[in-house]
Every structure is written in C-alpha cells, then in structure tokens.
Amino acid sequence: MSTLYIVATPIGNLGDFSPRAVESLKSVDYIACEDTRTSGNLLKKFGIDKPTFSFHQHNEHNKVDHVINILDAGQTIALISDAGMPGISDPGFLAIRSAKQNGHNVIVIPGPDAATTALVASGLPSDRYIFEGFLPHKKGRQKRLAQLAAENRTVILYESPNRLIKLLTEIEEYFGSNRLAAVARELTKAFEEVNRGTISELKENYEARSSVKGEIVVIIAGTEYKE
Ligand code: SAM
To answer: Are residues 62 and 136 in the same domain?
Structure first.
C-alpha cells in the first residue's frame, strides 16, 4: 500500500502555497502535473526537484494505470493541477477513485480554490451553495441554466473572460435582471476585483469595458434571497 497526495497550489498569490503542501511535494517520488511546464516554474521557485509526468484531461484515462503501477511498486505520487485544488474543474477524480479501489491511501493537502474564495468574497449567502463549474458550451446548456435559475442555494460558476458577457446575458434571461450576483476576477492577484450587484448592473459594468481579462468566477444568489 502506498500514498497518493492531492496537493492544492496557489490560484495566483504564491504566498498561499502552504508549508505542508511544499513539504509533501518534496517528500514524494513523483509529481503528476496537469501541465509539466506550468508546474515546473512553480516547483523551481520553491526548490522542489522531483521527476514529473503529465496528467491532464486528455490523457487522464490512460495515465491512471501509470499512477497505479507506481503506487503498487511502493512509491509515492503527488498530483497537482495548474492552479488550486486538483479535482475541482481539473483532473483528479479518476486517479483518486482508482487509488482507493486499489487499496492505496489518498491524502489531500488542502489549500486555495477559486470557488469558495469567490463565494466568501461575494458577500452572498455561503451557508448553502451549489458548485456548477463551467456550464456546457452547447448541449444541455439551456436546460442547466433553467435548473439553476430555480435553485434556492447560492450558485457558483466558472467562466472564461471572453464569455463573461454572454453568460451574464443568459443569466439575465433565465434568472431575471434583479437577481443579486457577484463577479470575482483575478482572485488573490494584484488586480483582484469583486463586483456585486443585480445581474443587470453587473452586465452594464462589464459591457462598458473595452475588454475583460483574467480569471473569473460568477456567484448568483438563490431564488429566495432578498436584502
Ligand atoms: N482547480 C481550480 C480551483 O481549485 O479553483 C479551478 C481550475 S479551472 C480549470 C480554472 C477556472 O477557475 C478559471 O477559468 C476561473 O473560472 C477559476 N479561477 C482560477 N483561478 C482564479 C482566480 N485567481 N480568480 C478567479 N477565478 C479563478
């Protein structure tokens, strides 16, 4: 029996890389990275020098066997993604499931994730929430939006900056223009910005900009929330 470590990495601010995360990465035999080049820069900055291999959404199914073979041989692996918590809109689940099914330990080293950071920063109810990650681009998108519009828990969505206006337009259509929401951009980074207001106010704000850049989380209040 060996151990698979799931290690959270910063979502922007390197000061959020925990000492325990760094120590665990220094202690393992291999580090599985979503992108070996991106993680290589981070690992170098923290003096972590371990063999790496790629583990991303396009090779995840094939690489799970490689992960299990290493664990079966008694060696340890840490899995990291480009940013934040592996397994949250990132690869991780398949390796974790397989490690457990094959009798190995899975230890999660917790740390930053954009979803709960944005939720708390939004000032919208955080006692009950639903994480949807990225909505499907085509098939099933409208149905998902309709379901989420009827949700009475706070909704968390990930979105890319070039699709933000389209998403806010759809949210306005399905949730109504007066629903309270927040857009969290570039969390933990130099240009961090969390805007809160009705959907129509937020849409107006972002439509008035010549461009929207950076990483984005959209938080939407549930049906019953009023201020
Ligand atoms: N595993 C990551 C986590 O724990 O949050 C999420 C990975 S997902 C591929 C990337 C998305 O997360 C981005 O498109 C954005 O929606 C969100 N995200 C990541 N970092 C962010 C940041 N610093 N500020 C705002 N959103 C961020």
So the answer is: no
pTM of the model: 0.97
Per-residue tens of pLDDT for the chain, all 227 residues: 999 999 999 999 999 999 999 999 999 999 999 999 999 999 999 999 999 999 998 898 899 999 999 999 999 999 999 999 999 999 999 999 999 999 999 999 999 999 999 999 999 999 999 999 999 999 999 999 999 999 999 999 999 999 999 999 999 999 999 999 999 999 999 999 999 999 999 999 999 999 999 999 999 999 999 99
What is the position in ligand 1's atom list of the atom closest to the CA of 184?
25
Q: How many domains does the chain have?
A: 2
Residue 112 Cα to ligand 1 midpoint, Å, equals: 10
17, HSE (Cβ side, Cα atoms, 13 Å): 19
| Ligand 1 pocket member 114 (CB < 6 A) | yes
Residue 220 bridge partners (DSSP):
155, 181
Its domain, for residue 154, covers: 114-220
CA 207/CA 195 separation, integer angstroms? 14
- How far, rounded to the nearest angstrom, does the alpha carbon of residue 141 sit from its chain's CA centroid? 19
Of 108, 122, 158, best ligand 1 pocket probe by most atoms within 8 Å of the beta carbon: 158
Q: What is the rounded distance in angstroms from the CA atom of residue 221 to the CA atom of residue 214?
A: 23
Cα-to-centroid distance, 104 and ligand 1 (Å) = 29
How far, in Å, from the CA of 156 to the mean position of ligand 1? Answer: 11
Residue 19 lies in a domain: yes
